[in-house]
Amino acid sequence: MRVAIVIPARFASSRLPGKPLLRETGKYLIQHVYERARDAQCASEVLVATDDERIFAAVRQFGGHAVMTRADHVSGTDRVAEVAAQLDTDVVINVQGDEPQLDPAAIDLLAGLMRDPASDMATLAVPIPDADSYYSPNVVKVVCDDRDRALYFSRSPIPMVRDGVPDFAKRPARFLQHLGVYAYRRQFLLRIAGAPPHPLEQSEKLEQLRVLGTGGTIAVGRVARAHRGVDTPADYAEFVRWYREGGEGGANGTRRAA
User: Fold this and answer.
1) Of 37, 102, 104, 182, most Cβ neighbours within 10 A?
2) What is the pTM assigned to this prediction?
3) Which among 77, 217, 232, 254 is annotated as catalytic?
């Protein structure tokens, strides 16, 4: 099974403009993400998809593979689909360009889920730790069936506990937070990217509901911990601190060879 990892990256960001090119660690943020993706054993190829010449040049500078895309894409999924249309691959994994702490083993888990021919897509989830996360609309929840296929995603607390209180310590966990990393069958990605938004998607503002709303199947893999993305200056400062303390084999550690 051929697997391509595509990392969409854009310069514009309302909370942290130019974040792919932040470099306080000595490496571009997009370079950290690229190297984590390259460490995944499943990857036949890794590339960055961008509409910005500065990001393109930075990726080329550190020896990565970058491709230019159109500038009018509404979402990262659309950008990945444009690139996927030109790739000779079976599976496309979308790794966001602002997730430098994503575990390569989690990427491999996604690829493994796609070995099931019944899966159009795969994604990840982590147990919800507390009530604050459960009730927060900023935390996307997913409910799965007995085969760990997604039944629904929501910003609302699901499954709702009508009687009593949620037990977040129970294992296996019933309450799951969705993590926004995806694997797609290439042909399915091209089809779903070209489909109009689904009413459920428009209501919850969640792209993955286009898949469920049109009858697609999403396998859900479970991981122990959520990886932290970089959305704000404070997030980036925390990542820099983590890296300098030895995270990812940073200043005080040894990074696994690619």
Assistant:
1) 37
2) 0.92
3) 217
